[in-house]
Amino acid sequence: AQSVTQLDSQVPVFEEAPVELRCNYSSSVSVYLFWYVQYPNQGLQLLLKYLSGSTLVKGINGFEAEFNKSQTSFHLRKPSVHISDTAEYFCAVRIDQAGTALIFGKGTTLSVSS
Amino acid sequence: ETGVTQTPRHLVMGMTNKKSLKCEQHLGHNAMYWYKQSAKKPLELMFVYNFKEQTENNSVPSRFSPECPNSSHLFLHLHTLQPEDSALYLCASSNRNNANTEAFFGQGTRLTVV
Questions:
Q1: Could you report the per-residue pLDDT of B35-44, keeping only the tens digit for each?
Q2: Can you give the pLDDT at residue B2?
């Protein structure tokens, strides 16, 4: 079975600083990888996804993620964060099989302060 | 507007009550999901429906009863719940034919059991 580990439960940063949110996965089969963001009292919104091809994926709101197959990682990065980036971030995987559901990590709370 | 609508947004119910959560998607998807999000716990997949057929039940207690009358609607019937069932319940939908597509989420129903 596949699983997702988000190594940091909370990441506090100052505004305009860079940030990296870490995600590692395990699976014996090919997977697709996703990052979602959840603002307070909201559902989840897709930030970006890795399907194939270039290992660097760019998403919305200036976020990007790099897929590293050898390290089974899919870390999320942003070079300069804003107060409005304060939210919960979830890494998710889905195996390459029709009809399967996304499996999520525990989430990382990003807190951006001025 | 995410294309996935959940009602109600907030629900307070007693342990002896019976209530239902509703989810509707306008995206033409053929797979729908219920997730439970509790404080300080990862998103838990509860049920998966593909083409109106339940294909996954992750050991969910019988006091939660899902219903999928068609591929656009999904319900979660609740009865004799416990206080620990208080959580955010998220509905999602996707195209089951392509594992490389993301799931779209509703804004969730915040359930409080008193």
A1: 999 987 788 9
A2: 56
| Cβ separation B96–A107 shorter than 8 A | no
- Mean pLDDT of all residues in B93-102: 84
* Nearest-CB residue to A98 (from B35, B96, B106): B96
- Token couple for B109: 């129903």
Q: A43 vs chain B: nearest CA distance in angstroms?
A: 4
**pLDDT tens figures, A87-111:** 999 999 988 777 788 899 999 999 9
Torsion from C-alpha of B52, B56, B60, B65, nearest 10 degrees:
10
C-beta atoms of B103 and A42 within 8 A? no
Asked if the Cβ–Cβ distance from B33 to A101 is below 8 Å, we say yes
Residues contacting A65, CB < 8 A, separation 6+ = A33, A35, A48, A50, A56, A57, A59, A74, A75, A76, A77
Helices then strands (H, E): number in chain A?
A: 0, 12
* Partner residue facing B99 (CB), from A42, A45, A94: A94
Residues A6 and B70: their CA atoms lie apart, in Å, by 35
Extract the residue ranges of chain A whose pLDDT is less than 70: none
